[in-house]
Automatic annotation (TrEMBL), chain A:
Source organism, top-level taxon: Bacteria
The organism of origin for this protein: Knoellia sinensis KCTC 19936
Alphabetically ordered keywords of this record: FAD, Flavoprotein, Oxidoreductase
Ranges where the FAD-binding PCMH-type domain occurs: 1-177
Alphabetical list of PANTHER family matching this protein: XANTHINE DEHYDROGENASE SUBUNIT C-RELATED
Listed name of the protein: Carbon-monoxide dehydrogenase
InterPro entries: CO_DH_flav_C (IPR005107), CO_DH_flav_C_dom_sf (IPR036683), Diverse_Substr_Oxidored (IPR051312), FAD-bd_PCMH (IPR016166), FAD-bd_PCMH-like_sf (IPR036318), FAD-bd_PCMH_sub1 (IPR016167), FAD-bd_PCMH_sub2 (IPR016169), Mopterin_DH_FAD-bd (IPR002346)
TrEMBL record, chain B:
Domain of life where this protein originates: Bacteria
Lineage, highest ranks first: Bacteria, Bacillati, Actinomycetota, Actinomycetes, Micrococcales
Sorted UniProt keywords: Molybdenum, Oxidoreductase
Record region (Disordered): 1-24, 794-829
A GO term, aspect molecular function: iron ion binding
Basic and acidic residues bias (residue ranges): 15-24
Protein name (database record): Aldehyde dehydrogenase
Ranges of Polar residues composition bias in the record: 794-806
Amino acid sequence: MIPASFDYVAPTSVAEALTALAEAGDDAKVLAGGQSLLPILRMRLNAPEKVVDLGRIEELRGVREDGDHLVIGAMTTYADALASAAVSEHAAVLHAALKEVADPQIRHRGTVGGALVHADPAGDVGAPALALGTEFVITGSGGERTVAASDFFQDLFETAVAEGELLTAIRIPKHTGWGGHYEKFVRVAHQWSIVAVAATVRVDGGTIAEAAIGLTNMGSTPLRATAVEAALVGASASDEAIREACAAAAEGTDPPSDLNGSADYRRALAPVLTRRAVLAAAGG
Amino acid sequence: MTAVDDRPAGAAPEIGRDRRRKEDQRLITGRTKWTDNIVLPGMLHLAMVRSPVAHATISNIDVEEAKAASGVVAVITGADIKDTQGAIANAWPLSAEQKTPGHLPMAVDRVACTGEIVACVVARSAAEARDAAELVDVDYDELPAVFDAREAMKDTVLVHPDLGTNKSDFWKLDSAEAGTGGNVDEAIATARESGIVIEREYRNQRLIPAFMEPRSTVVDPTGEQITIWTATQIPHILRFLIAATTGISEAKIRVIAPDVGGGFGGKLQTTPEEFITLAAARRLGKPCKYTETRSETMVSCHHGRDQWQKLTLAATKDGAVTGLKVELLADLGAYAAILGGGVPVLGAWMFNAIYKFPAYQFNCQTVYTNKTWVDAYRGAGRPEATFGIERIMDELAAEVGVDPLEIREKNWITHEEFPFTSVAGMTYDSGNYEAATARAKELFGYDGLRREQQERRDRKDPVQLGIGVSTFTEMCGLAPSRILGALNYGAGGWEHAAIRMLATGKVEVVTGASAHGQGHETAWSQIVADRLGVAFEDVEVLHGDTLVAPRGLDTYGSRSLVLGGEALVRAADKVIEKAKPIAAHLLEANADDLEFMAGRFGVKGTDKGLTLGEIAMATWTSHVFPEDIEPIIDSEATFDANTFSFPHGTHLCAMEVDTETGASTMRAYVAVDDIGTVINPLIVAGQEHGGIVQGVAQALWEEAVFDENGTLVTGSFVDYTLPTAADTISYVTDHTTTPSTTNTLGTKGVGEAGTIASTPAVVNAIVDALRPMGVNDIVMPCTPERVWSAIQTAGSDTAGSTTDNAQPHFESGAANQDDPGSSAEGADR
């Protein structure tokens, strides 16, 4: 498990990191927490000429509140985000998903931003980020731009972050008072999600007033279960009504088939897991 | 002189005490000698070049670019070492007719599975070796390959064209022919007329022995002897086989298994990597090290299980079994490994299990495929058999319509009947299945869980409850040499121990059983402390180095304690025997007036006496020594058993099955094992808990999967879903004890018990949960998707059979396949 040799730089600011990336062109890889990149390098599935390690850029770490938004630095570890009271209060579904990421060791190394840019459709932070209407702050040589969640995930392992750019932060509109739950289905605890559902709802007087559902590993990117969301709004927060609304969870999805399950099996799981996620999010 | 109970008066006996393990601090902190920690002056590093294709002729290997790379000292191909590299031996040909392909450590002109080594790079650093290995350019002319054992049986594609067939050998045990029972075909014919015949095909999937420490070998060729450190279970056998296949004098080879991080049978092998590292070191005259990556472990350490089982069980209408016929197809992979076909053949004595079957027949066909070779994996042959019989006993219970424990009780050997000679001709010395079962039921809350199961069924709960039973036995203490000889095995099965009484009163114990995580150092110390009356702390256990412990047959098959422990007892008794005349001389007493107690020879009726430590000092100085006695009280003993030992137990498992997703979650697990005398209950608990989870993993999680090109798809822990503590519950373990009569200590062996018993308990529980829906089997591993598929189709399928998807091993229309929908005797609804 020895990677091919590469040049290594560890800048201490975003500006330095961008310069290092610009110099290396398309032969550079960005190292965040390394939980996906290092195995790839060690198994020699990729051999970049340069690795730009963001680990020493303090400005990329931490969670803060900015008016109606939570701002999570891209290099914030899963564990730090999980420990944040602000995340728990204003983005309950993300908090719930973070608890389910892999194992404690990985949660202390892996980063929220690294996972989002890696964009593995089985990763656990994409679907809650999508459901929460997250804005992605991307920084390049030309300055900062913000991309909506619906435009961020483009395909398998592909995002709106272009060559020479960095995801520097995510801005999550506060979902204060919303319930959230992440229903993750795996065979063994440390596994990637076979299917998972990120559900966040606002219940008002026994009725679901607002709902957002993100699906993990039901397509090449995280997906919104828009048909379910539409059916949930105005429905009573009861077992029966939620069951009915969630029946359409697999609509418009294109799940993979692999050793852990066929596409058909995943389509069958989606409504069951969505129902469980929504029920839990609604406090049921 | 008897030395059965020589403890100091008032001192607690060591045997039975839950001593913390002496070796754990160094093993857990890693501050010890793992092979990969060893660094020698001028040591070079190897990287292997492995075949990415399953079957091909090697037409050319271009090593020039690799040779020119930074730090590279040599690039070695099979052609370079073909006459000197030795061979990977099969020590257990099933018969003289067995077809056995030649197996060279490094392929010379053809590869027969992916991962086979075709070249190696030797460089000054491991990184340089790895870099250069990628520069070795191998031309493969691909040949047709076959990956499915049943397909391989057709011989249309040959794994080894020169053999002319893929069939390795056929082995049969028939109770009528052996005179140990009746004619099974007659029993089946009778049952077809007037009783019950259950016919099933079960699959034991292919598994990977995922030991914690990847394999590593260091060879130092400098000096008079070649020294080989290697992460192995079998240093003594490796030494013998290196000598036997390379022509190096055995006396010039020293093998050291330093601390070894687990094996589970996976290090019960002489590996290509060991021979290649040796060949490189000899060729270059420098110390060489090879340590595999985890990815290399997955594809190139031998795999386990991989067996198809066709079972035909005949019984009377009330469930008394009248005969069992077993037809196994065992996939050996590309080569016959060290035990090879012997592993499935061990099942011959185990399918009849704890039962009094009047007629029995065991047939085993071994076959080659273009996949990683298969050999021993924790339990080796016995888990496969236990799975088959315990699954089909549940099917019989369902057919008769009684509780699965009732059908077992109806057929098992009662405790009054021991010693009992089984229909397979094996004599079980002791056991009490009733006692273990009663205790397990009590701990499990069996009746309460059965009530809850019924309630869940009645209210159509989406989460159903199933209860699985496994009443197993196993044969341990591999193995009596005379039986091995009769089976054509290439070695004996004795074990050796030596005791060295040091002048300072310390005791060195040398054992031929080479531990790789079992805790021998602690357990052996306890045995010797009791036997010699010395302090636990004063006993040092030495093992694993053929120079220090020259005699031994190593650790596997739950053999260390029942054989090595008995050798130790005999060696200790010899120490006392040798010390006695010396004590008599020094005490100026008649030997007959001496009694040995609490580590001290005392003159009866006086307070005169000498401790063993004092006698050891007096022996060392020899200043005042009897003239006719050799000045030494060290001893050694070799023990060869007459028969196996037969641990048994009752395991009960409750599984909750989520019928909406197919997910199975363990609710409760109780194991009551009778392993005879327990030396250290803490070590035993560790073996049981670890063993159980390893068997549960076969039932639920693990499978080595190859794609249509023969590439291992589950080549990392991302896809080979090895469980962790987070996936388990806390198992309840307890014991009943009927001491073994085959050894002085009364021990039976525990290393494999949990793994052997737990797999069918779990699958039986899942099937039990779903049986009312018409499900009667789920193929292992019982993935959520397989369970879900079975439920989906069973609801609409009045035949009560699960789908092809859930049971891919069922061939519709094939021989020995009943149709549960139309055949009265096979129906299980």
